[in-house]
Specification:
564 residues; 13 helices; 19 strands; 5-stranded antiparallel sheet
Length: 564
């Protein structure tokens, strides 16, 4: 049997009769796992999982044939293509022609496993939440731009890190917040979640609790949420338990990523702490109408003073505040708690990165970091609950690929699913290192769009990986090959991971495989940057080799082949 991968070059194989022609480059698949079903570059052992790889690192498309011996009827083959670069490829992958017809069934009945109810990431409500959240991120990006302008104005030298700022006069006003207000205290909050529209909610304090940092968490609830029994005392108690105290959600984020607020060099523009009088963290739970679309949000404009100039943030609440939709609490309390910790990551990133370090992630990486919190922290305060495992992984599997990760648009549920799933993959490969490094060791910039790719690529390399493109390719193969977690080779799954004091749960993608489209989503918009595609085959009866001819791997694309 000829080699597993033969270049389809002019002259059909370069015989000796044409000595003047240069020899075609010798390329072949390489076994991509150790002690697995891949015996060598041309042979499958006949059982278990085998994985092979080919990385076209050139700037030229390559077309060749694939031939793997040792297979048998019913074996499942997946070709996973990954464009892990920041550029749209000139051509799209082509799977060529299968040398024998597919088996009648795409999967043997025994391979079909139940995943229970269709995850909410696949329904209209989740789509609405993600679309609204994406719009909120655009607003927060605009606020970071305002902060950049303030830096330029204060130094006269353009954007500078805080360490280089000239000293400014201390403010002549008292801190906005001092201590936790008593239960029953009232306040009107400005909901700015609908863009230019401001909705006022009169709320009262239902509960407050202290954090190890010295801040208080204050839970506010509007009257209609109480009268409509949308949020009960039990809900407030559960949220307080999840958020407050040593070892709870806010304290963990504080330990892992830093505090949500603190000292800064913008006293005339941003709210501030003072010794012994730290800003409270406010959670405004309000009965937002269905048209609002949001489950919860953090909007960094509320961290600005009303009098800041520029810009004039007249509607700012001048407070550290999250808004939570009471209808979502009634529908799924755990989802709301997970959302709250997601938003707490955004609040922390705004202070730790934009305010202190003059850096800011592109939307795709900012959202990924927040969903990594949902994968790491949330399961410790809501035992058995993991939105990323329940919603994001199956949601991305169901897309059929064709999603561009770094080109993150509005109305982007598919991108959220992809980002959450990739974050879970990175968590299980690198533990807490990448997650925490996204705050402290990621050198992207608010002044140049696109540097978040290099930031994550460098962070992966500094923690022992070979770069973004390689991890992105293995992540795509892990998803669309839907390998059982117990037999998935290294880099091809979501195994349990002990990292620090955290135990990240194993996620078995094979239990979700019925959600995977039999045919990958067409790449109608082209083979865009950071996109996956795939081909699923089943070995027919009577065949002992798997052969595909004229498979095209575009320039700078990775092909990963799995057999199980």
């Amino acid at each position: 049997m000829f080699a597993a991968l033969l270049l389809a070059a002019c002259g059909g194989g370069g015989g000796s009769s044409a000595p003047a022609a240069p020899a075609a480059p010798a390329i072949s698949l390489q076994a991509d796992c150790s002690g697995c079903g891949a015996v060598n570059s041309t042979t499958y052992s006949g059982s278990g999982v085998g994985t092979w790889s080919y990385k076209n690192s050139s700037n030229t498309d390559l077309t060749f044939n694939i031939n793997i011996d040792g297979v048998s009827a019913g074996k499942q083959v997946t070709l996973a293509f990954s464009n892990g670069t920041t550029q749209t490829a000139v051509t799209t992958p082509s799977t060529g022609v299968l040398a024998a017809p597919l088996a009648e069934a795409q999967f043997a009945p025994a391979d079909k496993a139940s995943v229970g109810p269709v995850p909410s990431s696949l329904n209209a409500a989740q789509d609405a939440h993600d679309a609204d959240h994406s719009a909120r991120m655009a607003q927060n990006k605009a606020v970071v731009g305002q902060l950049r302008a303030m830096r330029a104005n204060s130094t006269g030298q353009g954007p500078q890190p805080d360490a280089t700022f000239a000293s400014v006069l201390a403010p002549s006003f008292a801190p906005i917040t001092t201590s936790a207000p008593a239960n029953g205290s009232t306040r009107t909050w400005n909901d700015l979640g609908s863009g230019s529209t401001v909705t006022l909610y009169l709320t009262s304090v239902q509960s407050s609790c202290a954090l190890p940092s010295g801040r208080n968490v204050v839970f506010w609830l509007d009257a209609s949420s109480i009268s409509g029994n949308l949020v009960t005392a039990a809900d407030i108690s559960a949220m307080s338990t999840a958020m407050c105290g040593t070892g709870a959600g806010f304290a963990q984020i504080n330990t892992l990523l830093g505090d949500v607020w603190g000292a800064h060099k913008f006293p005339l523009d941003l709210i501030q702490d003072s010794p012994g009088l730290l800003q409270n963290i406010n959670i405004a739970i309000v009965n937002a109408p269905p048209s609002a679309g949001w489950a919860g949000y953090f909007y960094s404009v509320n961290n600005f003073l009303k009098t800041s100039s520029p810009p004039n943030n007249a509607n700012s609440n001048q407070a550290l505040v999250f808004f939570i939709n009471s209808n979502q609490v009634k529908s799924d309390r755990n989802y709301s708690i997970s959302t709250l910790l997601h938003e707490a990551t955004h609040m922390t990133n705004f202070y730790q990165r934009a305010v202190l370090r003059n850096t800011d992630h592109d939307t795709w990486l900012e959202e990924t970091s927040a969903m990594m919190t949902e994968d790491i922290v949330v399961p410790t305060v809501l035992v058995g609950y993991n939105k990323i495992a329940s919603y994001r992984l199956p949601g991305y599997l169901a897309t059929g690929g064709g999603v561009s990760y770094i080109n993150w648009p509005n109305l982007s549920t598919s991108n959220y699913n992809m980002g959450g799933a990739f974050g879970a993959y990175l968590n299980r490969k690198y533990g807490l290192a990448v997650y925490q490094g996204l705050v402290t060791n990621c050198a992207d910039s608010i002044t140049i769009s696109g540097l978040s790719y290099g930031c994550l690529d460098n962070l992966i390399r500094s923690n022992g990986g070979t770069g973004f493109a390689d991890d992105f390719a293995h992540f795509g193969a892990a998803i669309f090959s839907a390998l059982p977690v117990a037999t998935a080779p290294v880099n091809y799954g979501f195994p349990a991971k002990q990292t620090g004091s955290y135990t990240l749960q194993a996620i078995d993608v094979s239990t979700m495989r019925t959600l995977r489209p039999a045919v990958a989503t067409p790449l109608n918009a082209g083979y865009t940057a950071t996109t996956h595609s795939y081909q699923l085959d089943t070995v027919p009866v009577g065949k002992t080799s798997y052969t595909r001819n004229n498979v095209l791997v575009p320039a700078n694309t990775t092909l990963l082949l799995t057999i199980q």
